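Workshop exercise sheet. Pairs work together: one partner reads the sequence aloud, the other fills in the structure field after running the prediction. Swap roles for the next sheet.
Pair: D.N. / O.F.
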Amino acid sequence: MVEPRFERNLGVISSEVMARLARTHVVVAGVGGAGGQCAVDLARLGLGCLTLADFDIYERHNMNRQVGCFESTLGQSKVDVVARMCLDIHPALRLRRVEAGITEANVDDVLAGGEALPPVDFVVEVIDIAGAGAKQALHRACRERGVPAMTGLMLGFGAALHVFQPDAPLYEQLYILPDGRVDLPAIIPHLGSYLLQDAMDACFAGRGHAPTCVVGATTAAGMMVSELMRGVMLGARAMVSWPEYLYVDLFDHRYVRAAVSPTKQPARQPM
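Structure field:
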């Protein structure tokens, strides 16, 4: 029997899948814009086990896109705020907080489960682009453990989604530049027609933030949660996985499912 708080999911999700979802463990690494919304969405779907990892606190510049950022939560831990929101939705959720964020030292422990949680089934990696080392460590550990990992990059009114199965190339081989920065033009292969070139040039050069808003955050979260549900319902190999990727821009009405050559990174394609 499905709990009343989740019964309106029936018809979209079968009771059998609801039971499977209740046994599934997802790590959300980075609970800011896309990650925080993703965690809340998973709680509303009835996910059973959730680990939240982020070292950051809310600041006022997060207000335009991050689900847990309010005047009342400024200065508070993002993990604590998002955890409270998830548990307010789903009190029986088995939830672990990792307030140090993902590090090379703790990544194996995080994926192993612990604190009465089973080993991790899926990883949502939305660590800030400044955390290239943590991204590499997490993707490498997922590959070693056979755990599918996904990342949703929000930009403007859209987002790009990449899913990495354990046999995909290493993240650093695909998307880390020689100077250690994330290669944003490669991992965000399309740009919205409305994006200001000066802002994008600064972002790609590592001198500024990626221009985005709440629509980009919720779009990235929706894409990640939907693809994760494909993994739960149909198996991990049913997910759109590297070398394929998805890109959506709701302002430009642009919807892309494409593949890149295994020997070549995706090239940025301006609108």
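Discussion prompt: The two ends are 49 Å apart (CA to CA). What would you look at next?
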